[in-house]
Structures are given as C-alpha cells and as structure tokens.
Amino acid sequence: MALTLAALLAVFVPFFVARAVARVKPAGAPPMVRVPTRAEPAQGPPDIWQVEKTGGSELYSNGLRVDTEFAVGTRPRSYVAFPAGWADSSAGQHRSAAAGIVFHTTESLQAPFEAGENRVLKQAGESLVEYVRRRHAYNYLIDRFGRVYRIVAESDAANHAGFSVWSDTEWLYVNLNDSFLGVSFEAKTEPGQTDSSISPAQVRAAAMLTEMLRSHYGIPARNCVTHAQVSVNPANMLVGYHTDWASSFPFEQMGLPDNYSQPLPALAAFGFEYDSDFVHSAGARMHAGVVLAEEALARRAAQTGLTLPALRKLLQKRYRDRLAEQRRCVPATVGQGASEDGDAVAAGHPLG
Ligand SMILES: [Zn+2]
Description:
It contains 8 helices and 14 strands. By secondary structure, the protein is of the alpha/beta class. It has a single domain (45-337), classed as 3-Layer(aba) Sandwich (Lysozyme-like). The strands form 3 sheets. It has an 8-stranded mixed sheet with strand order 1-2-3-8-7-11-6-12. It has a 4-stranded antiparallel sheet with strand order 5-4-10-9. It is globular, with a radius of gyration of 20 Å. Bound molecules: zinc ion. Residues 104, 227, 242, 244, 352 line the site of zinc ion.
C-alpha cells in the first residue's frame, strides 16, 4: 500500500516509551504490595486447528481470522533455553520453536474510537501495518477494529524484544526476539494506568490469537507476558527499558492467570535493579512481582552467606555469559545492531 510521508505523519505519530539510558539511581525499598497469585488452570488451551487458508487470510476453528496479505519472512528462530534455578549450569538447549508470547502496544497516536472517526481510524491502522512490516517489528499486529495481521512469519524472529529476560519453572530465556512471539495492539499505555484502554474487538481477537498460538506451540500460560515485564537495559542494569503494558494488561480476558504477580526473572535470576520510574509505571500489580523477586534474592543471599551486592554482581556476570551464548546462537549478519531494541531505539525506533 502506497502511503505518502505526509499521510503517515498526519495519522501516525509514534512515541518513545523507552527512557534514556541515564536515569535516576535505583529506588530504595518499595512499599510492600501483595497481589494474590491466581492458580494456573490445570488444563492447557483447547486444540485449535486451521479451517481454511486462502491467498490473503486464514481461518481457525475458534473463530480467529488472520490477515496474511502483509506477512514477511526474516530468518528462522534460533535460541538457547538455559536451565532455570540457582545452579550455574550453562548446559542450555538449542531450540527453534516459540516458547512464549510477549504482548506489546504500538504506542501510536489514538484517534477517538467512534463512528465519526472511521476514516482516520482506518488510515492510522493501515499506515501502522506498513510501518511495523518495514521494521519487522512484531509477529502479529491487532488493529483497533480487532483485525489480526500477521507481520513476521511465526517461524521467524521479529525485532520486538531485543534486550529482555523471562523464565518459566524450568527454563530461562534471554533476548526474546528468537524465543518468544511478539503480539502488538494498536494502543497506547500510560504509566500506572489501571484500565487496558483497548477496544472490545481487540480483546476478543487477542484472546483467540493467544489461544491459537498456545495450542500450536504448547506455550505455558506463565510464558505469556508483557514487554514491560521482560525489558532490560544492560547499559545500566535496570529493568523497564520499555514499559508498554506495564500495569493494565487484561490477562484474565486472554484466558491467562495474572502474570504480573510472578517474580520478575531479570531481578531474581540476573541481579538487575529497578528505579522509581519503573515503580511508577508498574503500578501495584507488577510491583508485586518486584517484591517477590527481591524476597527470593534476599533468601538466596542468606543461604549463601553473600551480601546482596555480591550476589547481584555474581548474577549479573551470569547474565552477560548467557547473553553472549545466545548471541552466538544467532547468525552474525543479523544477530547484532538493529535487531536488538536497545540499538534500534538509538536509531530512531519508536515502537513499544
Ligand atoms: Zn513493546
């Protein structure tokens, strides 16, 4: 679709979510906030199958329709899954199948969602599809009418979460472009907001997409998380470089447990820290995960007889070792520079 620069600028003014590298020092002990952990459903998602496939779309048995007209390929996924836990074992597994989902927002300008704005809403959504496609920014984009666009093929890595960390009960993942699918909503989030601010059509579409992806790849519910939960900045060892979906992701409406209440792996496993900006953005829900991670770290320090700073230093070295191993796993021509969001931001990448 041909769009003039003027049209693009008129309907799509993206904002930076990432904050500058030089930020305030880590905050002191935060107030204790507890959010009850919801038990994960015993059963996984139902079996979802493809019903039909045409030149420009796919239909799935749960009602999901995917527009494939704009889909592009990049390179096959290639990553290392590291054993979770305290043991310093580097016996990782090389893999190529998606292990989780990271939810994003585009952080683009939002016109009022009403009939009188149809022209602007349609133009903004179409511009956005082109924009994220050129940047290989996500695997999926859900526009404000709930239309699901495949951007980068599921089998391929998208540039959605370069410097990032997540863990399930068994495995730890770094730089999730290769290991996690990126699903983005045409939406904008504000620090600490409590309402999700996406349309009911987006909620329904995202729930069906999540169900289909979990069914196809056997993705555990706890590996469906938001960009704010996984984003890190190795330059200053702080979490929350990107803060899209920091406080208001509708996990329950996606058929997922409240994953904000999980201990943040970047803090607990790799000794990252957080600052007052992150506390503000995260709000009460994700703050619970911060507190749980800090408690785990303090228990580990007591068990080992290390001071907290000494334990953090050890874990930070472990992060750098794991990061180096993950980078070795990605082809050299595409594994550096612009494929990682820290560098992409420096080059003007405005997406969340
Ligand atoms: Zn994001």
